[in-house]
Structures are given as structure tokens and as C-alpha cells.
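Slide 14.
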Amino acid sequence: MTSPPVLAAEKRDGYLELTFDRPDSLNAFNQELWYAAAGALDAAAQDDSVVCVLLTGRGRAFSAGQDLGEMNDPAAFADRPPGYGRFMPSLETFPKPVVAAVNGVAVGIGTTMLLHCDLVYVARSARLKLPFISLGVTTEASASLLLPQVVGWQRAAELLFTEPWISADQAVSDGLALAAVDDDDLMAVARSAAARIGSLPLDPVRTTKRLLLAGRAEAVAAARLRELEEFQKLVGGLMPDQ
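Slide 15: predicted structure.
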């Protein structure tokens, strides 16, 4: 029996819409989803008909983070390295704008990946959370660098050390999102933004994204590698070393 796809991809008006599609697992990232998302981003980076990418989730969640059951199963990594190390370099260096439509719960990587998106819209019912320390791990996705830059040092410390749920309005106030949108309007608003970007000429869009990334690219990659090193120490080395 063929497994159902974990990522839906649809080309629209100048942009590619990618939907995390593991609704029964709240779109938690397992090996298949990590690799599918990375492959889709890499293909979109090379596709001149795609000017930007829109990320969203199916069902009640944007993403509940890493699939913890799989992370604790060494057999899941027998054939290829953990997919986080495949996905994050693709996202953090993606050469075109990334729009996110956070349709529901966003936990762990579901929140930290937003630090690498250019425009983030959150449904009013969405809730975000960074429960790394209570899970016995530490930050990922270069959040140790980017989170204080986006929300300020003390707010970053509060989010990481006390792990509150973040409402949609608070996400906007923190700078994690551009706007909170009524749930029924979320996709229309995000798609409108993506289509507007998709209507622009590719070369200046790509050049502008490259310039925006240039000032932080090395620091972001270095932060991710520092986090991986510490993560390995805490969990026994299941995360990749690159």
C-alpha cells in the first residue's frame, strides 16, 4: 500500500503553495516530511515560474514540531540522516520570498521556521509555543540568534525559559507575524500577498532577497551548527552534524 503524501504542492499565480499534510499528527515533521519539504524548496529555487513560496498546514495545525516518536526511534534514521539537517539549509538560504499562513498550532520548529519567512500571517485561533527546555533539548533553526533579534532579548528569554503560549495578536506584537487574520480569511490574505509577489519580475525579487540574506547568512548557519552541537549532547546524537 502506498503511503499518503505528506506534502501537497500546487502552483498558483507566480507562486508555489506548499501544505504540510500530516493532519492526524498535527503536521509534525517526520523524516518523510523533512525531505519532501526540502526537495520542494530546492526545486522551487530553480524554477523560474515560481517567484515565491507560500507555506501552510492542513487541519488544526501549522506544525506541532518534530515528530518526537520518530526522533526517539534510531531505526527511522537507518537509511538517511535526520531530515532537519536537510531542510534547514534549504529554508534559511531560499533565494525567493517565503510567505507563511499559520493556520493553527505552531510548536517548536513550527514557530522557529517563521523566523526564516519573509511575510507571516497568523489565524486568530493560532497559538505558538517554544517548549524546547521542558523537552530536555535546546533551540534550533538558529533561534538562539534570530529570536532575540526579532522579539528583543528579554522577550526571547521569557519565551524560551517560561514557554508561554503565544496568541495571534501577541505574535504580531512580538514581530513574529505581520498580521493576525480571521481564520476564514487567512488563506485569501496570504494568497493575495503571494500572488502580488508572484506578479513581480523574478530577477529583482531574487536580487533583493539575496541582499536581505547577505547580512546574516553566515551568522545564521553558524548559529544552527552551534545549536546542533548542543542538541547532540542533550539527546545523544540523533540530530545530524551538518
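Speaker note: The longest helix spans residues 217-235.
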